[in-house]
């Protein structure tokens, strides 16, 4: 069953912020690919498949787009423009053109370049009688795209926009190309902004409307970031997808009209040289280089893997290696410009300038002679380009966490808040944390924000202070035992910021967007301390006993103050040590006859526990105690647990007339699930310690006795290595073999087996690793399920 589509809409309103400084004064649809505006490729692709009646939605620098493309006549199509006064979102933008889109139509973004066979996708759309068909493509690292899971018939059953690694379930991603029935407008609200991927599609999938995914062959590139912009040129040269008017004068060497090449010039393809270019004697143009029209390459200059736009002058002996240079730039003698460095339009670089890897120079700048231009943050090549990890920002002290990084982070963080906002800055007593925290605060003052300082070093107290005072957020900086700087950013509720805020900061960091305030902020004179938290905790737990309680505590010296102050207020004797060695802890428990021991991490949020016999409590036992104390000592009847939590916890919760709720294994999801409670067993070692002693006082027994009374748990857990660029494909293949089983996507992929057992495949955010959890009726069966999936994962990596 086939059909015909005669109309399309090209979304061309975006600002192209991730391509700055290239798009500071050039709309993204006009950014050149192989010396031709990127939107021209979309127009030609649609025309090739018989679609010539095209709507174009515009907003940012709309006049330039309309002036360049006109009515479309010179491209052999008819263009109809729909201008937005404010951003409407992707779906809102298409809704704006509803009057034109009166039959089945294609949607494509102006920054997409593809050779996908559109008619085959259209035939698929009509055969499925779909409301929307999303064209999908395989992507090894899908973090920057919308991840898609379909059933065996192609119906979309799960969609995650820009997932973290622990949310990746497939290597199939949303290409941004859709085939839509006009009935789609019935499901769009009247008042934008709203997006297809974030709003419309999730709603339609939830309501089980016919949304289908078509797995497309052919080339596809979403030119959203500098790296992909560069890679697209490499791809097109490799595939010989060269604009038609260029002549191949030697193997893989294409030139335009009126090109002047002097004697002794070395040309090594694949490369492309535009019209009216002049290349002086003994210059070298190496592989994967693009030179725009009217540019001049002087004698002995050398270009490799570089993209040079129109009207650029490169003086003698300069070297470009993987650089991108916008229009009307002058590059002086003996300059060196390295990989992914970007030079904005109308810049002037004097002699002997060195532009480092990934540096960016904004338009209209003059760079003095012998200047070394250092760029913004460069992330490691072995992991995805993501700043935030599982627990905030983590980097090496003195290496990644340098003053320039902190100033850029403060600038990006500033964009989340209004001027005049009050922000709490916390840090531990490590000199590096103190210096970085002070610098961060001073940067915020430059942006008109006010700061206060918390020096207690106890993260749960820091969160409590934010949520119970008028702070708009907080930044907590510590250095752990591995000499890593940990930067935790919190919202006004004291929760770790959500992924949307994380992405905003990451994007601002890339774009180096800085704007200081007319009026300075300042630091508040009265610093915050632990007393507010200690008093609140004391009031929240009405615990007294005639027993003499003793607890072994291991922590940093800084945390000793709040730990002893809090526990002594409950008449609990503290045996403190800074030595976290397990054997030392066990010796102290036996020597002091302590009820148990608790070992705090550097911030006091994470902790390990030993019972009175010196046995370390497992993570399953800890989550069970979390459920037990939450239902006993709080008003809640629903307790959040991670997706790997044993099903036996349902039985435990039912005994106490409650239930468990599975949430993603992140601090934010846990804290949100218990947002009505000021303290949290799972992320507050002091609170957990006092509540456990409260439990022991009521039950009049040991911690080991209580743990032994918890329903039997048969849980197997193992890690398996899986390279970053293979994880998405592996997850998809695991899903494909589970079509006939019940699958849960709360966090990772949880497959329920016929015998009541289950297996959870949970990708780690920070490592190229998949964690496999299996629960079964006995330990042996759980191990067998885990081994089965590990074998499959290793097998799929070699396919």
From TrEMBL:
Q: Where is the Nucleotidyl transferase domain?
A: 7-238
Alphabetical list of SUPFAM superfamilies matching this protein? Nucleotide-diphospho-sugar transferases, Phosphoglucomutase, C-terminal domain, Phosphoglucomutase, first 3 domains, Trimeric LpxA-like enzymes
The UniProt entry, under CDD domains, shows: NTP_transferase
Organism from which the protein derives:
Anoxybacillus flavithermus NBRC 109594
What protein family does this chain belong to?
Belongs to the phosphohexose mutase family. Belongs to the transferase hexapeptide repeat family.
Entry's InterPro entries? A-D-PHexomutase_a/b/a-I (IPR005844), A-D-PHexomutase_a/b/a-I/II/III (IPR016055), A-D-PHexomutase_C_sf (IPR036900), GMPPB_C (IPR056729), Mannose-1P_guanyltransferase (IPR050486), NTP_transferase_dom (IPR005835), Nucleotide-diphossugar_trans (IPR029044), Trimer_LpxA-like_sf (IPR011004)
- Domain of life assignment: Bacteria
Q: What would you give as a GO molecular function for this chain, any one?
A: intramolecular phosphotransferase activity
Q: Which residues form the Alpha-D-phosphohexomutase alpha/beta/alpha domain?
A: 387-512
- From its record, what is one biological process in GO terms? carbohydrate metabolic process
Identify this protein by name: Nucleoside-diphosphate-sugar pyrophosphorylase fused to phosphomannomutase
Q: What is the lineage of its organism?
A: Bacteria, Bacillati, Bacillota, Bacilli, Bacillales
The segment(s) forming the Mannose-1-phosphate guanyltransferase C-terminal domain are 268-372
């Amino acid at each position: 069953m086939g059909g015909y589509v005669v109309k399309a809409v090209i979304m061309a309103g975006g600002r192209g912020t991730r391509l700055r400084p290239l798009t500071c004064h050039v709309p993204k649809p006009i950014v050149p690919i192989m010396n031709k505006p990127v939107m021209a490729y979309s127009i030609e692709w649609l025309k090739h498949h018989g679609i010539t009646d095209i709507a174009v939605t515009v907003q940012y620098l709309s006049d330039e787009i309309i002036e360049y493309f006109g009515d479309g006549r010179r491209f052999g199509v008819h263009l109809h423009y729909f201008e937005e006064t404010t951003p409407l979102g992707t779906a809102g933008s298409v809704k704006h053109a509803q009057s034109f889109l009166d039959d089945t139509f294609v949607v494509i973004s102006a920054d997409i370049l593809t050779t996908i066979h559109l008619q085959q996708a259209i035939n698929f759309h009509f055969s499925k009688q779909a409301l929307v068909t999303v064209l999908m493509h395989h992507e090894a690292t899908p973090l920057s795209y919308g991840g898609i899971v379909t059933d065996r018939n192609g119906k979309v059953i799960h969609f995650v926009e820009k997932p973290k690694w622990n949310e990746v379930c497939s290597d199939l991603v949303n290409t941004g190309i859709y085939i839509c029935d006009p009935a789609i407008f019935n499901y769009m609200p009247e008042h934008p902004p709203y997006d297809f991927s974030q709003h419309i599609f999730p709603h339609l999938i939830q309501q089980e409307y016919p949304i289908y995914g078509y797995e497309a062959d052919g080339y596809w590139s979403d030119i959203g970031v500098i790296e992909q912009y560069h890679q697209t040129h490499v791809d097109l040269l490799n595939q010989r997808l060269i604009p038609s008017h260029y002549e191949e004068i030697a193997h893989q060497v294409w030139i335009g009209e009126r090109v002047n090449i002097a004697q002794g010039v070395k040309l090594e393809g694949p490369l492309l040289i535009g019209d009216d270019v002049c290349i002086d004697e003994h210059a070298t143009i190496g592989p994967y280089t693009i030179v725009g029209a009217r540019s001049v390459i002087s004698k002995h200059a050398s270009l490799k893997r570089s993209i040079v736009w129109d009207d650029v002058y490169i003086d003698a002996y300069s070297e470009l290696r993987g650089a991108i240079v916008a229009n009307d730039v002058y590059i002086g003698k003996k300059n060196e410009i390295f990989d992914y460095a970007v030079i904005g339009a109308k810049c002037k670089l004097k002699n002997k300038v060195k532009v480092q890897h990934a540096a960016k120079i904004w338009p209209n700048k003059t760079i003095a002679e012998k200047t070394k231009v250092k760029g913004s943050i460069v992330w490691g090549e072995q992991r995805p380009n993501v700043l935030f990890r599982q627990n905030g920002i983590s980097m090496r002290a003195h290496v990644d966490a340098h003053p320039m990084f902190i100033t850029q982070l403060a600038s990006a963080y500033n964009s989340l808040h209004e001027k005049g906002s009050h922000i709490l800055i916390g840090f531990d007593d490590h000199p590096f944390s103190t210096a970085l925290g002070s610098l961060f605060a001073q940067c915020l003052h430059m942006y008109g924000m006010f700061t206060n300082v918390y020096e207690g070093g106890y993260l749960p107290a820091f969160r409590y202070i934010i949520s119970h005072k008028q702070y708009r957020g907080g930044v907590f900086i510590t250095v752990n035992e591995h000499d890593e700087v940990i930067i935790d950013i919190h919202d006004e509720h004291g929760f770790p910021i959500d992924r949307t805020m994380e992405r905003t900061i990451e994007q601002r960091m890339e774009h180096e967007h800085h704007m200081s305030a007319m009026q300075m902020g300042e630091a508040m004179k009265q610093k915050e301390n632990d007393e507010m938290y200690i008093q609140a905790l004391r009031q929240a737990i009405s615990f007294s006993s005639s027993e003499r309680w003793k607890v072994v505590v291991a922590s940093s010296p800084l945390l000793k103050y709040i730990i002893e102050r809090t526990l002594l207020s409950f008449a609990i004797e503290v045996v403190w040590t800074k030595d976290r060695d397990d054997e030392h802890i066990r010796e102290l428990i036996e020597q002091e006859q302590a009820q148990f021991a608790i070992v705090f991490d550097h911030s006091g949020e994470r902790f390990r526990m030993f019972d009175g016999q010196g046995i370390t409590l497992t993570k399953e036992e800890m989550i069970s105690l979390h459920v037990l104390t939450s239902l006993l000592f709080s008003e809640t009847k629903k307790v959040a647990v991670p997706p790997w939590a044993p099903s036996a916890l349902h039985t435990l919760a039912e005994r106490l007339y409650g239930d468990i709720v599975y949430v993603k294994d992140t601090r934010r999801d846990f804290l949100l699930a218990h947002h009505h409670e000021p303290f949290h067993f799972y992320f507050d070692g002091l609170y957990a310690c006092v509540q456990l002693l409260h439990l022991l006082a009521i039950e009049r027994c040991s911690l080991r006795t209580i743990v032994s009374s918890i329903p039997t748990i048969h849980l197997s857990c193992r890690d398996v290595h899986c390279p970053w660029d293979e994880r998405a494909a592996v997850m998809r293949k695991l899903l494909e073999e589970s079509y006939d089983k019940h699958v849960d996507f709360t966090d990772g992929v949880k497959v329920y087996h016929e015998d009541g057992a289950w297996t959870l495949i949970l990708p780690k955010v920070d490592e190229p690793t998949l964690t496999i959890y299996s629960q079964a009726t006995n330990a042996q069966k759980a191990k067998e399920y885990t081994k089965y999936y590990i074998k499959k994962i290793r097998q799929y990596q070699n396919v």
